[in-house]
């Protein structure tokens, strides 16, 4: 689990830095695959790619194991099973990301065109394909909304151990979780746009989200803000690597960040009275 969060954080650091550099130097911000390819050209690139690939595979294994043994304590009712199914989907996605890093490592990452666009084109060719693509987008928007809600309500604090570091980093962690939700929601919107216009090339991942934001009013600032948010989310991943609590294995003596904050708020309220 901890190795997985480190690997996940590393890829977001690279994407955010490259996107910021590209947008302010007149270039085009790229997505995950392009970021991996950019790493490969650096002297330290092979070692970092290997770390990212292993980390992403570790994260995939963690999500799969957490779903099967319900380590996040979601339960076996309808809502819990949906959440655990989401963990399986996340595991599959991160296997794909790890595979992309491995492909770049062995020098076979030269296929032209977006794999997401190709997959969307294939889905659209099926009966009711445009509706299916639209549903994929709607699910992603829902997932993005979940992350935004999780960040704004600070629900994530129940999953972190209370320490001086996690207390100080609360604002950055909140911004990171919200930014991740915005990214997922934008990607979902692009899928719906692709279905509406019957144009699979409109669908895509992070690269497509950056492109769409860049074309909007104040696009440079929007991309920069999103890149800063992704850096914050990378920090969120690194903090999880160190202080994540596994609900099913939690010791009652461990105080969560949420409990510490609530305790501080109650003490402050008593002092005011």
Automatic annotation (TrEMBL):
Q: Where are the transmembrane segments?
A: 5-24, 44-62, 88-108, 128-148, 169-196, 216-241
Report the residue ranges that make up the DUF1206 domain in this protein. Answer: 3-70, 85-154, 175-244
Checking Pfam families in the record gives: DUF1206
Name this polypeptide is given = DUF1206 domain-containing protein
Q: Which UniProt keywords apply?
A: Membrane, Transmembrane, Transmembrane helix
Domain of life, per lineage = Bacteria
Annotated InterPro entries: DUF1206
Organism from which the protein derives: Cereibacter changlensis JA139
């Amino acid at each position: 689990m901890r190795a997985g969060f480190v690997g996940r954080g590393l890829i977001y650091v690279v994407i955010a830095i490259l996107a910021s550099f590209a947008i302010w130097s007149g270039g085009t911000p790229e997505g995950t695959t392009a970021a991996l390819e950019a790493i490969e050209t650096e002297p330290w690139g092979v070692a970092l790619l290997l770390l990212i690939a292993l980390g992403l595979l570790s994260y995939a294994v963690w999500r799969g194991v957490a779903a099967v043994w319900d380590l996040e304590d979601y339960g076996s009712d309808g809502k819990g099973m949906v959440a655990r199914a989401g963990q399986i989907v996340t595991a599959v996605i991160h296997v794909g990301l790890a595979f992309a890093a491995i492909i770049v490592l062995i020098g076979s990452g030269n296929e032209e065109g977006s794999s997401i666009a190709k997959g969307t084109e294939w889905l659209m060719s099926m009966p009711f394909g445009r509706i299916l693509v639209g549903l994929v987008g709607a699910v992603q928007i829902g997932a993005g909304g979940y992350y935004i809600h999780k960040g704004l309500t600070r629900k994530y604090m129940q999953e972190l151990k209370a320490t001086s570091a996690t207390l100080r980093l609360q604002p950055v962690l909140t911004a990171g979780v919200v930014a991740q939700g915005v990214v997922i929601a934008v990607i979902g919107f692009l899928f719906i746009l692709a279905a509406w216009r019957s144009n699979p090339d409109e669908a895509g991942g992070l690269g497509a989200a950056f492109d769409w934001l860049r074309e909007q009013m104040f696009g440079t600032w929007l991309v920069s803000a999103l890149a800063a948010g992704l850096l914050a989310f990378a920090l969120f991943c690194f903090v999880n690597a160190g202080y994540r609590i596994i609900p099913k294995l939690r010791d009652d003596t461990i105080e969560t960040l949420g409990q510490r904050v609530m305790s501080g708020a109650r003490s402050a309220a008593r002092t005011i009275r």
